[in-house]
Specification:
Number of helices: 3
Shape: elongated
Distance between the termini: 36 Å
Length: about 160
């Protein structure tokens, strides 16, 4: 899979990060790309998690109102001791961004071929910037949930 960001957790102990992930993640046995992360009930769990031999992957549990946000999957490498994680889009989010980028390419080709601007060009760029904005929102929410889980693990009284 294509990871678009790598975050290093320099000042936080990797064992506390691992303990927080394990405590606040509901374990799943199927790919997180195919799992629905929407929930309608309150729970102490913050993530859905999938563990394999090399890594632990988590995605944020979302409310039904947040379904329109792109799904991000965070991967912690076990060999690196949970000191860093990588972020990628889910399969459906990858398909959406690929569709938008193909539409942009086709509109640029049409623009060059016909020497005139088309009204569809503006709408495709609006979709691209909306997707980019929603990705930033989801990224911020996911990082906040991860930080919250780590803080709850290091300071249980909070």
């Amino acid at each position: 899979m294509l990871y678009f960001s790598k975050v290093t957790l320099a000042e936080i102990d990797g064992t506390k990060v691992e303990a927080a992930i394990r405590k606040f993640a509901a374990k799943r046995h199927a790919s997180l790309d195919l799992q629905s992360s929407a929930t309608k009930i309150g729970t102490e769990k913050l993530f859905l998690g999938l563990e394999n031999e090399k890594s632990i992957q988590v995605t944020r549990l979302r409310s039904t109102f947040e379904r329109f946000l792109p799904k991000l999957i965070i991967s912690f490498d076990k060999a690196k001791g949970f000191s860093e994680y990588r972020i990628r889009f889910s399969l459906l989010s990858n398909i959406v961004i690929a569709f938008i980028l193909v539409a942009i390419v086709f509109n640029v080709v049409y623009l060059v071929d016909n020497q005139q601007a088309d009204s569809d060009m503006a709408s495709v760029f609006v979709y691209f910037f909306l997707f980019f904005f929603f990705t930033l929102v989801e990224l911020r929410l996911t990082k906040a949930k991860l930080k919250s889980a780590i803080i709850k693990m290091t300071h249980p009284s909070s």
